[in-house]
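Title: Comparing notes on inverse folding

I've been comparing how different people in this forum approach sequence design from structure. To keep things fair, I'm posting one structure and asking everyone to reply with a full sequence. Here's the target:
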């Protein structure tokens, strides 16, 4: 969990300092979101393999990210760009948030201390891991649709160039 949190924080600061000191590069615009997707996808895939979350949720999350990334790369080859919205950044933050939550739950289970049992019972009773991951999955899909809608003019221009 500590490694994941450090990776998430350093990712956020990297983008902040790149903008603050006007060090934004074309490579950085591509690599930064790619690093986010690798970090998040690897955690979700691991959780699915462990039986903690559903594979269909992971599939939808990864499909959305691969689709948007593929669209961005294809459009940039034609000299067009997609605008990253604030909601897409919120999507990444919510994904990282649920991953931290799941890692915390796993840590509490591993401790097996008496004071953690009531919390784990609540998490299990209300199916919090499933329900929160479902919310994140739906939010991820909504942001993908919003992304397409807000970039519809650029996408249309791209399709006309084909």
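Reply #1:
Here's my take.
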């Amino acid at each position: 969990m500590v490694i994941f949190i450090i990776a998430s924080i350093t990712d956020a600061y990297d983008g902040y300092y790149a903008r603050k000191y006007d060090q934004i590069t074309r490579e950085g615009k591509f690599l930064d979101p790619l690093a986010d997707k690798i970090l998040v996808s690897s955690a979700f895939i691991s959780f699915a393999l462990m039986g903690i979350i559903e594979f269909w949720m992971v599939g939808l999350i990864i499909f959305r990210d691969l689709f948007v990334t593929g669209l961005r790369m294809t459009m940039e080859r034609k000299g067009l760009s997609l605008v990253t919205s604030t909601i897409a950044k919120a999507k990444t933050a919510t994904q990282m948030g649920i991953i931290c939550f799941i890692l915390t739950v796993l840590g509490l289970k591993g401790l097996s201390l008496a004071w953690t049992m009531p919390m784990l019972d609540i998490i299990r009773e209300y199916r919090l891991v499933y329900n929160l991951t479902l919310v994140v999955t739906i939010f991820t899909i909504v942001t993908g649709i919003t992304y397409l809608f807000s970039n519809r003019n650029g996408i249309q221009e791209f399709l006309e160039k084909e």
